[in-house]
Design a protein that fits this description.
CATH class of the largest domain: Alpha Beta
Number of helices: 14
CATH architecture of the largest domain: 3-Layer(aba) Sandwich
Oligomer: single chain
Helix content: 25-40%
Shape: globular
Mean pLDDT: 95
Strand content: 15-25%
Radius of gyration: 22 Å
Strand order of the largest sheet: 2-8-7-6-5-3-4
Number of domains: 2
Structural class: alpha/beta
Length: 398
């Protein structure tokens, strides 16, 4: 069960006197994560894997413990976790390295609500892309996906939770559809792991990716989970130190997965910070976080529905996210005015723009939305400040 608002906010030094409603872009960091990284970059710092001195050995243990913590967090195996710079690099890695079948182009099914990081990597790697439509309330239409899928598909790549609409994918059904045609399923879990338990074994997916900074952890680190057999079949993504077995000018052999995908000195302090962030959210209990944010979404949608000029997007049970437009007002103007001092309520931070989902904006027939997104530290006073600020926006624009 979540602690009181004040006790939670006290754990996040970046939240003082601020209504932060942009957690879907990046989450604020609790002090325990900051402290863990400060220690890792200070009194405990050393490189990993190659040092023979004690501090290096200790840091190597801590680094690999972070890998094991990520694995347990999503119910995978330690040797199935590849550390990446974030979900973007993880998807690029799979798109580039997933083996094809002869001269046949690799084929992937995406959806209309995907983040650019789950579109552009497949284009760059030369995949043939098919696009699954959405239901009227903004969910990936799995009935349509079932009708579209054939044995020509190598991959389905869907967002577990939409970063714009907050709609939650029926991941088990998506996995079953992939199995039916012999395709693999990759899930973008960036918006899912901060607010709901994930069990990759129960889902029966093949790849799962997420970023640390949306999980109350540091930027510059994320994770790719992949089935071991698939990782073993994939060639290296980049070359350099740490990912090799033996190197000569004539030929090089590579380390087994996951090390073969981690060229160069890794994100040492960031891995320690990610470990601390996972400990934090599991102590707070993901089920409680999800229930808390779901209640805030309901409250926000009800409050915004009182504005005749506001149009809401996405399903009513969206996960921690509310996107909207206000008639006659550009979302950037909404965001700018909300960030100004507003009487007793103070500044409100929201996201305004296309949210790296321009194909979704085209589907909705709009250039951009204003997006409110919640975190473990959010509560109804943030909603009150938002509503007061939107009232001011409405008055300014008449």
């Amino acid at each position: 069960m979540l602690m009181s608002r004040s006790s939670i906010r006290d754990q996040f030094p970046g939240l003082a006197n601020w209504h932060y409603l942009d957690t879907a872009a990046t989450a604020q960091k609790p002090q325990v994560v900051i402290d863990a990284m400060a220690s890792a970059m200070g009194r405990d710092y050393a490189t990993v894997h190659r040092g023979v001195y004690k501090r290096s050995a200790d840091m190597t243990v801590a680094f690999e413990a972070a890998r094991a913590r990520v694995a347990s967090f999503i119910c995978g195996q330690t040797d199935e976790i590849v550390f990446t710079k974030g979900a973007t690099e993880a998807i690029n890695l799979v798109a580039q390295c997933f083996p094809g079948c002869g001269d046949k182009p690799r084929r992937v099914l995406l959806s209309q609500l995907e983040h650019h990081s789950n579109i552009v990597p497949w284009q760059l790697a030369g995949w043939q892309i098919d696009v699954c439509p959405l239901t009227s309330d903004g969910r990936i239409d799995l009935d349509a996906a079932e009708a579209m899928l054939t044995t020509d598909f190598d991959m389905i790549a869907f967002a577990h939770v939409s970063n714009v609409l907050g709609s939650v994918l029926d991941v088990k059904r998506a996995a079953a559809l992939a199995r039916r045609v012999g395709a693999c399923l990759l899930l973008d879990g960036c918006q899912a792991v901060p607010r709901m338990p994930v069990n990759v074994a129960e889902i029966d997916c093949d790849f799962y990716v997420f970023s640390g900074h949306k999980l109350y952890g540091p930027t510059g680190i994320g994770a790719l989970w992949g089935r071991k057999a698939l990782l073993d079949a994939m060639p290296p993504y980049q070359g350099g130190g740490a990912m090799i077995d033996r190197v000569s000018f004539e030929a090089t052999t590579y380390a087994p997965a996951p090390q073969r995908f981690e060229a160069g000195t890794p994100m040492i302090a960031e891995a320690i910070g990610l470990h601390a962030a996972i400990d934090y959210v599991e102590t707070a209990e993901l089920e409680a976080i999800h229930a808390h944010e779901t209640a805030l979404v309901r409250q926000t949608r009800a409050a915004l529905s009182t504005f005749n000029s506001i149009r809401l997007f996405g399903p009513e049970d969206s996960a921690g996210i509310v996107s909207f437009t206000m008639e006659g007002v550009h979302p950037h103007d909404i965001g700018t005015i909300l960030d100004e001092a507003n009487g007793d309520f103070g500044r409100v931070a929201i996201r305004a723009g296309h949210h790296c989902a321009q194909p979704l904006m085209a589907h909705l027939g709009i250039p951009a939305t204003a997006r409110v997104s919640f975190g473990v530290y959010s509560d109804d006073s943030d909603i009150a400040a938002l509503v007061a600020g939107l009232g001011r926006v409405s008055r300014i624009f008449g």
